[in-house]
Design brief:
mainly alpha
Length: 259
């Protein structure tokens, strides 16, 4: 009797754990859709939830196809708001950062990486807040600002799908209106996420049959999240949107640091 009771308890706990894991991953998938609709700065929460469920490295291969589904929704919905000049100025640097991240990703100390990245993000957000406070009309048009933000975005998106903070800083510095911010970022990440796929399949082997089967269960949550996010974005004014991005980006940096 005790043996059967013990077996039942183990099975019961296993079922509860599976439900909890699915709930967390479904929440993360919905947040991906919300973030792609324009509610930027919650990428760290998504990465953290997926890492809890699937492990840090394996989760990157599960998250990437979900990101691409969100990207497709975003480029269709915001296709009229893309600023191609700004996109093409940043894109080559991001591509270079992705390649760098793919090369060093297997050997990089995650602890050193995440703490350094968190510090850089926080410093950058403080700079952006200072610019906002003094109402400066200065727009950094030099190549090294675009280069540093682009390489950092590419490197972090390859390592942990965490490019949002650096791209947010760049687009905020360009003083893009809300819809142009979202539309330009949508095309940037659609291109970059497609570029990352071969690295995940052939080098890191984090995208495989098992990961894709998991994604099939999560795709609907991403799509629902996108349309929920669109409704939320429509309620936010341009200036409030800028402050919201800075606050969420800073909170994301703190989550990286203490995760």
């Amino acid at each position: 009797m005790d043996y059967h009771l013990c077996a039942f308890c183990v099975t019961h706990r296993s079922i509860i754990m599976e439900i909890q894991q699915y709930a967390l991953s479904a929440l993360a998938a919905m947040l991906i859709g919300i973030s792609k609709s324009g509610i930027k700065g919650i990428g760290v929460i998504i990465v953290t939830l997926m890492a809890i469920v699937y492990g840090a490295k394996a989760s990157t291969g599960i998250v990437l196809p979900l990101l691409i589904v969100g990207d497709i929704c975003a480029v269709i919905y915001y296709k009229k708001h893309t600023l191609w000049k700004i996109l093409f100025k940043l894109l080559p640097w991001v591509v270079g950062g992705v390649i760098l991240g793919a090369i060093v990703g297997k050997n990089l100390s995650e602890e050193v990486f995440k703490q350094g990245m968190a510090i850089i993000i926080l410093v950058s957000v403080i700079m952006m807040y200072a610019w906002e406070r003094r109402k400066s009309t200065y727009i950094p048009d030099n190549w090294y600002f675009a280069g540093s933000m682009g390489v950092a975005a590419g490197f972090t998106t390859m390592i942990g799908n965490l490019a949002g903070a650096f791209s947010n800083i760049y687009f905020l510095a360009m003083r893009l209106p809300k819809n142009q911010f979202i539309g330009t970022a949508a095309w940037l990440f659609f291109i970059i996420n497609l570029f990352k796929v071969p690295f995940h399949i052939f080098s890191w082997e984090t995208i495989n049959r098992g990961s894709l089967l998991t994604d099939l269960k999560l795709f609907p949550f991403t799509i629902v999240g996108f349309f929920l996010g669109v409704r939320l974005v429509g309620l936010i004014k341009d200036q409030s949107y800028r402050y919201m991005i800075m606050i969420l980006t800073a909170l994301g940096a703190l989550l990286i640091f203490f995760r």
